[in-house]
Design a protein that fits this description.
This protein is mainly alpha-helical. It is built from six helices and no strands.
């Protein structure tokens, strides 16, 4: 019985490791994971901006930290071999305008850092957070396939 449990545990660990390896080896999967995370951390601050939720400084700071931390990594997750597959919404324009596209991530990281330092209360949140989200909109408008 002990050997069976050990075998099952080892197989589970290997399977989990294989899943991580697939994400690490597949830039589309990896960038989708980051974008999903951004969507999750943006829900509360986004709702607060719309007046649908109370302002939460910790949630705003967590979102800004995620944007600043992940932006540099995301800029590297659009190699030429990742134009199609895995339900990507990336438009070909990304590879045609790569420097402009990558500059959006650099600006996002910079703006997130500035906003993080500036946001101290609801008033500064309302002034600064939207500026950061403007970077997301710029990328979505120009480089992401519209959802049907």
């Amino acid at each position: 019985m002990k050997k069976l449990v050990t075998t099952i545990l080892a197989a589970t660990v290997l399977a989990a490791g294989a899943g991580l390896s697939v994400a690490a080896d597949n830039p589309i999967v990896e960038r989708q994971k980051i974008f999903k995370g951004w969507g999750d951390v943006t829900k509360q601050p986004g709702a607060a901006l719309k007046g649908e939720a109370k302002f939460d400084l910790a949630a705003a700071q967590a979102a800004l930290k995620a944007y600043a931390t992940d932006s540099a990594r995301l800029a590297t997750l659009f190699p030429d071999n990742s134009k199609t597959g895995n339900d990507t919404a990336a438009l070909p324009k990304i590879w045609q305008e790569k420097p402009k596209f990558e500059a959006i991530y650099k600006k996002l990281a910079e703006d997130a850092g500035k906003a993080s330092a500036a946001i101290k209360d609801e008033a500064t949140f309302k002034t600064e957070f939207g500026k950061v989200l403007g970077n997301c909109k710029a990328c979505h408008d120009d480089y992401r396939q519209k959802k049907s």
